[in-house]
Amino acid sequence: MGSKLEDDARETYRRFVNRRDKIDEGASSWAELADFFTEDAAYIDPAWGRIEGREAIREFFVDSMAGLTGHGWSTPENWIMVEGPRVVSQWDQVLGHKEDGSPWLVAGLSILYYVGDGLFCYSHDMLNMAHIGQTMKTMQWRPPTEMVYPPRTVNRDIKLPTAWAHLEKNRP
User: What is the CATH number of the domain that holds 102?
Assistant: First the structure.
């Protein structure tokens, strides 16, 4: 067992993943996942860039997953590590399944910062977008009509929100 902070971060992340799994199953909505973030949180997505604030993150979840959830996409968790307020997670982005039933997948990583009270102030998802593109091309994937595309120009700033910068003292 780790410190109380680490135990709380691990438990909160476990609840976050359980909620995400329910969303993948269609039993919950993407909007609900934003409730795991502080009002001033930052979420970094490889395609959509930096999204700031809980309500903007809520809108991002709904928009970015439109046309993906319910179309064979899911995000099974593989492992996590917790050190102080930092949670590092490795997961797979499943894009659907091949004729033999095996998944089309691309590995991903997330770094989250836990601040207490069941909330994260930061999440940075890392996914090889070239691998995603190659996989989609190979599987001959076509976007559903309800798909919402990321903006052409995005903010690539990966810093922690100003109020929480003290959580990572070694980063400028």
Answer: 3.10.450.50
Look up residue 33 and give its DSSP letter: G
Q: Which residues span the domain enclosing 9?
A: 4-144
Residue 105 within any structural domain of the chain: yes
Below-50 pLDDT ranges, the chain: none
Rg (CA), the chain: 16
Give 149's contacts (C-beta < 8 A, 6+ positions apart). Answer: none
Three-class SS state of 132: helix
* 157 within a domain of the structure (yes/no): no
- How far is it, in rounded angstroms, from Cα 37 to Cα 54? 6
Residue 156: per-residue pLDDT:
96
Residue 71 has a pLDDT of: 67
User: What's the pTM value of the predicted model, to 2 decimals?
Assistant: 0.92
- What are residue 77's DSSP bridge partners? 91
Single-letter amino acid, residue 77:
E
Is 160 inside any structural domain?
A: no
For the chain, the first-to-last Cα distance in angstroms comes to 31
pLDDT in tens, 51-88: 999 999 999 999 998 877 766 788 999 999 999 999 99
Are residues 43 and 112 in contact, defined by beta-carbon separation less than 8 angstroms? no
